[in-house]
Each structure stands twice: as structure tokens, then as C-alpha cells.
Write a structure and sequence with these properties.
Helices cover 49% and strands 19% of the residues. Strands 18-30-29-28-19-26-27 form a 7-stranded mixed beta sheet, sandwiched between helices. β28 (704-708), α26 (714-719) and β29 form a beta-alpha-beta unit. The chain starts with a strand and ends in an 8-residue tail after the last helix.
Length: 815
């Protein structure tokens, strides 16, 4: 008997009945869907489907294929109990198995899981239960003030350090006994007593500081999987067991080796925790930037209140040298503000009434009164922290192969350890011969030992030398450091895939207006045709009054500067990328491009000579018509950003092609491109045509990155291999692109490319090292060439090497 399920989805982006019908039809045509109804008023879709044919993630995918989106929640869960890459795979598999979960990515370096899920299908409790059933736990974080919250990485480092010290406190006497016996053949007070002392001293190392390792191993086995701690637990347990067995069987005692393996393992954990702490310090720095309190003005009196009590609209008093408590706008006073924490800009930025300020930046000059515009989770700093955390919870595509390997790594190693014991038991003679050959080079090799001893040593070495941790940490640590460095330099990375994509792009494509240019056009020429200049200005500016387009705003500003009074348009309709139609004083007024006039039936012949002259001067020219007749032209110039030519040269020096896409006319576009040093230009491209132009450039040049303002270029940014949005201050569209440059400085594009290349280079180095290490070391251990202690030291150094290499990213020169 088939069982149907009902799903309730919140749909985003619908504006009319046609939208609702499109989504409804798409869902109804999905295999496995029995019924689908979309309600435009509630913006929700009700779907009845057969879960054996189609799942929730496919239904969400179908909504997106229709051109809309489903409301999906994202949560970051701190995970406890993970020790290696195998743990990561188990947690991911458990979370992805929860119905309604669309994606789950676990980062070993940050020990956090980033989960996207449909809220109507599942929730936090189901996610926590899945993690618990897999043998791990979701750690409840206390909502304490940011400045007072204990650093979790610091706590982990202190715990790891304490375990390491305790382990070596018991292992040091064992080392002394071993040195006395091996160096001077002294067994004090007797050989049997020394052996027994070693066994007794080694046991606390395994049961006290090593308890967490054994507990993790047991949890893994109990839930039907294996992790690196299983390998360490098996290796140390077998080593210690050989001690008591040596009194009854022809096998050497490796009880002391068990203590040394655990001590070295815990030392590696401590060094790894320290390195991971350095890698994650960027977020901690950001958290500590915020002010603790604010001085607010109430009825003329000043009060100091906790930051959590500041509300939107409160007027804050910010003295010289103090941090601005939260995002706001200056309403009184002038000063210079150090915004380096947000934008990477070293020079203080002048602020006057009307200017926006960013919370946690430092007021360096005069007294300011600031009205709060964003508080709490809506502030710029909170957005940056959230973005960095989410970026660290994503994965780089190159990591997929490593993930597939780690899923089966530990079981394979256990199988290889069993094979090693079998080979030594059945074919010890040829293997002894190999040991005899290398004995002169490897002094710890002793082919004269019993077969049981050699088999035990080789098996233990295989168990403890294998390193899934290096595979698990190879990508996350580099991604963690890169996203942190980016945030410190005003480069916000949304997802790890953007790093790999940007490292591989062959061309950078710039939008013109507001990206290559200042985005603040000014009217340079009013050219009346058959009407007084004042009338031309009045008609054009009145029609554009209230416009959000930069050219429209420039026309209004130019009229106001001339002192001409304007009227609100009676009706107004904007045609995207072409112009506007308005009714002013009962007259139909058109303001827009030559194409717009032609399509509206207005002849532009009388303006051709003026158009050629003005466009040849790299000025954007719009035509103005009244009641179907052309009455003039308005020329607007948007100056090139001063750093643009320098940036284009730098990108070319990095081996990249540089192109420009603009809706402007060809003459203006060519003039701007020539000034910037750009060779490839696509002019007269409407917003909907930019995507097609990007596809054409991709076919001609390879992978492309698109640089735009993140608002008008959203479709093109989304379709590019990498979308880079340029923002300024708090007014940034973080969700619009893969990478957002907080500062409106084009030099950030060069820095982003350099950072991506450096980070991806580290990722590849780490993955190569992790694979190379395991492919070389495990066979050597199987042949008996590795002493168990050296094997564990090699394993610990492998993880440390990966994390340390990632931290070397901090030396990358981005400018």
C-alpha cells in the first residue's frame, strides 16, 4: 500500500498569479507528485508526494528550477566527540539521512556542522537526535556576552596540554628505564621488576589522559563505524597487552611503547589544537571587536547602557578614541573613523552628518552623535561573522575525492593490519631477509626478534602510522585561514567552492557603472532642442524625481543645483535598462536611450550630431521627449575610479584576460575601456543580455569571474563561475555574490585573486602530502621498517604539517 506525504513549502520570489502558476505546474509535472497547490496570498505550496519516488530535496530543486526559491533554514551546530576525518563522514551521513535536510557539511577544523533544512519537515531536535544516534553530541553553547564568552579553542588547547603533561609524567620514567637497559644493559633493580614497572607505569597513561581516546573509539565501534581513535586504541592496547603476555609467550614487551605512542599522540593533539586555534583566531578577533556598552542620549541626558539594550533609533554619543557601538548614521559632529577592521583600509575615513558608520569601528577625531540603524544580528559585524562561519562550514570541490577515501580509510587500515599479521605469520623468512638488508640503515630494525614480536610490531605500526586526520584537515584548515584573512582585508567569502573557482578563472569581467566608475555620475551638458534650457531641465528632472537609477539621480541633483523647482510625476513607469515613461503637468515625458526612443516612436535624427560628439567624449547621453517629440539631450559623465588602470594592469600581470560589459553605448564604453586599459568590451548589453554575454566569454576564454555592484548585476553574478560584488560600508549585498568586497576599491579584486590562488595552492599541497604520506608510510610499516614509536611520531607530524602549512597562508602578500 503506497503512503503519501504532505509537504508545506514557503515560496520566495512570487509577485503575481502567473508566478504561482509556474511553480504549481513545475511541481505537478514532477514524478512522484500526486497533487501540488500554490497559494499566492500566503506564498506557500502544498505538495502531496510519494516519498519512495521523490524526496524533499528534489522538490526544493524543482522549485528552484522554475525560477523561484523555497525558504530553507541554515543552522550551525557545534559537534563534540569528533577526532578525525572518518568522524566527519559519519556525522555528515547521519545528518543527511534526516528527512528534510538538503545539505550537511561538517568541518573537522572548526568542529561544526552547517546544515540546510526545510523547517516544515524537520527541526533542531531531529538534527540533534541524529548526531547523538551516530555516537557524537551537539554541544549547547551558552549565550554569554561576546567579550566574556570563553574561547572554545583556548579551552580545548588547555585540555590537550593537560593530557599531554600527565601522559609524559608517566612516560618519562619508562623512557629512563628503556635508555638504561638499551644503552648500558642496566635493568634496575632486576629485569622482571623493570618490566613490571613499565607495565604499571604505562597503564595510567592509557586509562587517564588516554581515556578520551578509548572512549571515542568505543563510541565509534558501538555505533557501527571506526575512526582514527579506534586505530590508536587498538595499537596501544595490543602494545600494552604484550607486556603481561611476555612473561608467558615468546614475545617482547611493548608496554612501554604503548605509553610512548599515547604520549606522542596526545602531544600531536596539543600541537594540532594550538595550530587550529591560530587558524580560527579571525572569528575570535571579530567577536572581540564589538563595544560592550553604549552612551545613549535620552531627553537631553546621557546614559551608559549594555550594548544589548541599544535599539534602532537610539541616539548614541561617541567620544574621540571610543568604539562606535553599532551601525548607524551620523546626525551631529564631524570626525575621522578608523574602519580598518571592516574594510582593511588603513587611512581613517572622514565622517559628517548624513554619513553611515559601522559598529565596532573607532572614532578618532571629534565628538559624534550617531543614530542607530542596525542592532544585534543585523549589524555589519554580525553579518561578517556569520558569513565567515558559514564559509568555513562549506567545502571545496577538490575535497570530494578525499571525503570518499576517508569514508573507507579506517576499515581498510584495520584490514591491512590484519593482513600484515597474517603475512608475518605465514611468510616471515623473506620478510626477515628484507629487514636484514635495511638493518644497517635503520638501526631500530632487529630481524633476530621472534616472529610473534615482529608480527606484533609491524601490526601496531600499521595501526598507528595511518593518518586519516591529515586528509580531514587538509582542506578545512586552509579554508578557515583563508576566510579569516579575507575578512580582515575586507574580502568576504561565502563558500569554499568560490576559492577553487576564483583560483582557476581565466578572465575577469567588470560591469562599468559603479564598478569601474565611481557610480556617482554628474550632468555635464544640457542640450535643448526647440525648447528653453530651463524647460528641458524641468521636464527631465521632474520625470526622474524619485528615481533610484544613478543617472536619474544625477539629473535631479543637477536641476536642484541650478535652483529649478521640480514637480512630482503624476505617473511613472521604468523600463529596465532603457529609460522611464512619466506624466508631468499632463504631458507624456520620455527620458532614456536612443533605442528606447525608437521603440516609443520618437525620431532621434535631430540629435545624431550631438550624440556623436558627446559619446565621443565618453559621456552617457539620454534623450528627452515630450508628447512624442524630441526636446533635448542630457549628457552625464561617470568618472573612472582612479585605481582602475592599476588594477587592470595587475590582473593582466597575473595572466588574466580583462573584459567589460555595459549597457552603455559603444562609443562611451570604448572610451572608458581605453582609459582603463581593457581590451574586450561588450557595449549596449541589457541586464537580461549580460548572462548570454558571459556564456559567450566563457566559451572564448574559459572560466570567468564577474565583478559588479551586487544589486543590478545579480543575475550575471549568479551565472558567472565566480560572482564578486563591490560594496561600500554597511550597504553591501552579501547574499548577492560568492565573494563580496566590503570596500569599494577595485584593488580588492586583485587581493581576492591572490588569496584564492594562495589558498588553493595550500589545499592542493595538503591533499598531496596527506595522500603521499599514507601511500608511502603504510607499506613501509607493513614490511616492518617502522618502529611503533616512530610510526606514531610520523602520524602526529603528518597532521601537524597540514595545519601548519595552512597557517603559512598568513604570509601571503595580497597587495
Amino acid at each position: 500500500m503506497e503512503t503519501k506525504k504532505t509537504l508545506d513549502l514557503s515560496i520566495l520570489g512570487m509577485t503575481c498569479a502567473s508566478c504561482a502558476r509556474t511553480v504549481e505546474r513545475t511541481l505537478q509535472r514532477t514524478e512522484g507528485v500526486a497533487e501540488a497547490h500554490v497559494n499566492l496570498a500566503t506564498e506557500r505550496a502544498t505538495v502531496i508526494f510519494d516519498p519512495s519516488v521523490v524526496d524533499v530535496s528534489r522538490l526544493v530543486e524543482r522549485v528552484r528550477e522554475s525560477g523561484y526559491d523555497a525558504e530553507v533554514r541554515r543552522v550551525v551546530l557545534p559537534i563534540g566527540g569528533m577526532t578525525c576525518a572518518a568522524c566527519v563522514r559519519h556525522v555528515e551521513r547521519a545528518l543527511r539521512g534526516v528527512e528534510g535536510v538538503l545539505s550537511a557539511n561538517v568541518n573537522l577544523a572548526t568542529e561544526r556542522a552547517t546544515v540546510e533544512y526545510v523547517s516544515g519537515v524537520t527541526g533542531l531536535e531531529a538534527l540533534k537526535r541524529a548526531v547523538s544516534e551516530a555516537g557524537y553530541e551537539v554541544i549547547e553553547e551558552e549565550a554569554s556576552p561576546l567579550a566574556e564568552a570563553p574561547d572554545p579553542e583556548l579551552l580545548k588547547m588547555h585540555t590537550a596540554r593537560r593530557r599531554m603533561i600527565v601522559a609524559w609524567a608517566f612516560t618519562a620514567p619508562i623512557l629512563l628505564l628503556m635508555v638504561l637497559h638499551m644503552g648500558w644493559h642496566i635493568a634496575w633493580p632486576s629485569m622482571a621488576a623493570a618490566e613490571m614497572a613499565t607495565i604499571l607505569l604505562a597503564l595510567p597513561v592509557l586509562l587517564w589522559p588516554g581515556y578520551a581516546t578509548f572512549r571515542s573509539a568505543w563510541n565509534a565501534v558501538r555505533h557501527g563505524h571506526a575512526n582514527m581513535d579506534v586505530l590508536i586504541a587498538m595499537g596501544t592496547a595490543a602494545s600494552w597487552a604484550s607486556g603481561p603476555l611476555s612473561f608467558a609467550l615468546p614475545v617482547s614487551s611493548y608496554a612501554g611503547v604503548a605509553a610512548m605512542i599515547m604520549a606522542i599522540h596526545l602531544t600531536g593533539r596539543y600541537i594540532e589544537a594550538s595550530a587550529k586555534g591560530r587558524a580560527s583566531q579571525a572569528i575570535r578577533k571579530l567577536l572581540q571587536l564589538g563595544a560592550k556598552t553604549a552612551f545613549i542620549l535620552i531627553e537631553g541626558r546621557e546614559y551608559e547602557v549594555p550594548l544589548s539594550q541599544v535599539k534602532v533609533g537610539d541616539v548614541m554619543i561617541v567620544r574621540p578614541g571610543a568604539k562606535i557601538p553599532t551601525d548607524g548614521v551620523v546626525i551631529a559632529g564631524e570626525s575621522a573613523v578608523d574602519e580598518s577592521m571592516a574594510t582593511g583600509e588603513a587611512m581613517p575615513v572622514p565622517k559628517k552628518p548624513g554619513d553611515e558608520v559601522i559598529g565596532a569601528t573607532v572614532n578618532q577625531g571629534g565628538l559624534l552623535q550617531v543614530r542607530a540603524t542596525r542592532v544585534g544580528a543585523d549589524t555589519f559585524l554580525a553579518q561578517v561573522i556569520r558569513l565567515v562561519e558559514e564559509a568555513q562550514g562549506t567545502k571545496v570541490p577538490i575535497q570530494e575525492f578525499a571525503d570518499r577515501v576517508t569514508a573507507v580509510f579506517v576499515p581498510i587500515v584495520i584490514g591491512l593490519a590484519a593482513l600484515t599479521a597474517l603475512l608475518w605469520g605465514l611468510s616471515s623468512a623473506p620478510l626477515r631477509g628484507l629487514l636484514a638488508v635495511v638493518q644497517g640503515v635503520l638501526p631500530w630494525v632487529d630481524p633476530s626478534l621472534s616472529t610473534l614480536t615482529l608480527a606484533l610490531a609491524a601490526t601496531i605500526s600499521v595501526l598507528v602510522i595511518a593518518c586519516p586526520c591529515a586528509l580531514g584537515l587538509a582542506t578545512p584548515t586552509a579554508l578557515m585561514v583563508a576566510s579569516g584573512i579575507g575578512a580582515e582585508n575586507g574580502i568576504l567569502i561565502r563558500q569554499g567552492a568560490a576559492i577553487q573557482a576564483l583560483a582557476g578563472v581565466k578572465a575577469i569581467v567588470f560591469d562599468k557603472t559603479g564598478t569601474l566608475t565611481e557610480g556617482r555620475p554628474m550632468v555635464t551638458d544640457w542640450v535643448p532642442l526647440g525648447v528653453p534650457e530651463v524647460e528641458l531641465i524641468r521636464l527631465a528632472a521632474s520625470a526622474e524625481k524619485g528615481s533610484e537609477h544613478p543617472i536619474g539621480q544625477a539629473i535631479v541633483a543637477g536641476a536642484e543645483h541650478r535652483g529649478i523647482s521640480l514637480q512630482d510625476p503624476e505617473t511613472l513607469q521604468a523600463v529596465q535598462g532603457q529609460g522611464i515613461w512619466a506624466r508631468v503637468d499632463g504631458h507624456e515625458v520620455l527620458v532614456g536611450s536612443r533605442r528606447f526612443m525608437q521603440e516609443s516612436g520618437v525620431s532621434a535624427e535631430a540629435a545624431e550630431e550631438h550624440l556623436a560628439r558627446l559619446e565621443g567624449e565618453a559621456k552617457t547621453t539620454v534623450l528627452v521627449a515630450r508628447d512624442g517629440a524630441l526636446v533635448g539631450l542630457v549628457a552625464v559623465a561617470d568618472p573612472l575610479k582612479k585605481e582602475a588602470p592599476e588594477v587592470v594592469r595587475a590582473l593582466k600581470a597575473l595572466g588574466l584576460q580583462v573584459a567589460m560589459i555595459t549597457g552603455d553605448n559603444a562609443r562611451t564604453a570604448e572610451a572608458i575601456a581605453q582609459e582603463a586599459g581593457i581590451d574586450r568590451v561588450a557595449a549596449g548589453i541589457l541586464p537580461e543580455g549580460k548572462v548570454a554575454e558571459l556564456h559567450r566569454l566563457r566559451e572564448a576564454l574559459g572560466m570567468v569571474a564577474m565583478v559588479g555592484d551586487g544589486i543590478n548585476d545579480a543575475p550575471a553574478l549568479a551565472q558567472a563561475d565566480v560572482g564578486i560584488a563591490i560594496g561600500t560600508g554597511t550597504d553591501i549585498a552579501i547574499e548577492a555574490a560568492d565573494i563580496t568586497l566590503v570596500r569599494g576599491d577595485l584593488r580588492g579584486v586583485v587581493s581576492a585573486v591572490k588569496l584564492a590562488r594562495a589558498a588553493f595552492r595550500k589545499i592542493r599541497q595538503n591533499l598531496f602530502w596527506a595522500f603521499f604520506y599514507n601511500l608511502i608510510m603504510i607499506p613501509l610499516a607493513m614490511l616492518g621498517f617502522m618502529h611503533p614509536v616512530l610510526a606514531e611520531a610520523a602520524m602526529a607530524s603528518s597532521s601537524i604539517t597540514v595545519v601548519t602549512n595552512a597557517n603559512l597562508l598568513r604570509r601571503a602578500r595580497l597587495r
